[in-house]
Each structure stands twice: as structure tokens, then as C-alpha cells.
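Possible regression after last week's pipeline update?

I re-ran a chain I had predicted before the update to compare outputs. Posting the input and the new output here so someone can diff against the archived version. Not blocking, just want to make sure nothing changed silently.
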Amino acid sequence: MTKTKQLIYQVKLGKSALYDHCVKSVAEYCKQHGIEHVIQTTPILNIKPDPFTSNRSGQAWKKFNCLPIFEKENAFTYLKSYDQVAVIDADIWIRPGASNVFDKVPDQYSFGGVVEREMPITAAYQKKIANYSRMQYANIRDVDWKWNSSGAEFFNMGMMVLNKSLLDYLKGETPLQFLSRPRFKPFIDGVGNWKWSTDQTLLNTWIKEERIPAKHLSYHWNGLYTAIDHERIRECNFVHFFLKDKLPAGGENVEELMRRVA
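New output (post-update):
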């Protein structure tokens, strides 16, 4: 029986003790499970908003002269060579001994991820994502977001598992061609409430519109630090330090962070 070829793809732009520590944990995880590991450290796609229509601003855009969050989609390139590709943000730490996440997304699905409102989130964060949902998804009316009191049904794209069948929905496009689709231009340009949007809005819209078979994973695979109850975060295999302003020393006090999640 041929072994499934698996890859974890990460984008790590700039210097950060937190990123270094988290990426090292991913490297150790890959060794444990025989997974290949690719770390992108410089922009490749160089996605830029239209200067005539864009509302974009922010330090990352100015620093890199591109929108670094969209660099993650370069991982699509590897679906031609691998059966499964996971894209994991550089601020996600993997707990030692965690099982193989690829096993959680069987072949009948093309995508796997964690829906934010399905996590055991705090009351304060529940209000936050309800407001975020209205701003990001209320004007996208051609799909069913399955609205409830917590907002829209959307995946947190800090950790996503892609199966090879996702190529069918890319329709032969390169990552750059995919992101250049006219449908996605308002997201790239940051039109209206999408001024601060990331690839999360774009990818969730794509998954919904194309009706891509998506596996809802447990919160254990993308535990949002400070958004999930502290005791529950200690149960998570993957801990996502996604809000730097809520971290000790902006995330650079790694020793203190590890003490809190150990």
C-alpha cells in the first residue's frame, strides 16, 4: 500500500520569538509523524490591492509592500505533489505527542478546519465573533451562512487541512490566478467592511459558494488562546496564539506562554 504523502506548509515572515518557538514545535511534530515540512520566509505571490479602489492600511502591508496573509495560498501549489497539505499559521504551537491531524480529514472531504462558533468560546469572544460575522459576511447573500446568535458559520483559517481533491475546485489555476479571480477583488482590495479582512473571508466565501465538502474538526485542532476557556485550552493539541495584544510581552515572552498552556 502506497504511503499517503503529507505536507505542512507555513509562512513565517519577519522575526519573532513566538514564531520561532511555534514553528519549531511544528517541525518536531512533522518528524514524529513522517510529514514533510516547508517554511516560506519571503513573499512569493506578492498580492497587492488595487491602489485606485483599496482601503487597505496597516503595518504588514507597508512593511512587505504586499499583503502577507495571502501568501498562505501558495500552499495550493503543493497539492499536485502531495495527497494532503495542512496550512498552519506561524503562531500555532503543537503540543508534544499530538496525533496526526491528517487522519481527521478522510478522502470524502476536500477541506478540514475548525468553525469558530463551534469552539467552547467565552461569552466575551462570542459577542466579538457575532459582530465580526455581521461585518464580514452579512453582505454576502448568495450562500447560507447558517446564522445563529453567535454569528455566521465560518472556519478559522489559521489551521486548514487540504486534500488533493481540492484541485478540482481550483480549476487548473495557480495560487496567483486563484487569488486574482474577479470575485475575490473586493476582499483583496479591502472594500468597505473588508478593509481589515484576511484570507479567512475569501476562503470561507469560496468554500460556501463552491459547496466544497468540508470537515468540521474539533476545537482541539485550533484552540484560540484567550478566546477559549483556560482549562479547555490545556486540552488542545494545537494552540493558536492569535491575538498578540493579549499575550505576555506581545507573545515574545515564550517561557510564560508555555507555563500557561502546559
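Follow-up from reviewer: compared with the archived run. The CA atoms of residues 29 and 97 lie 8 Å apart. Marking as no regression found.
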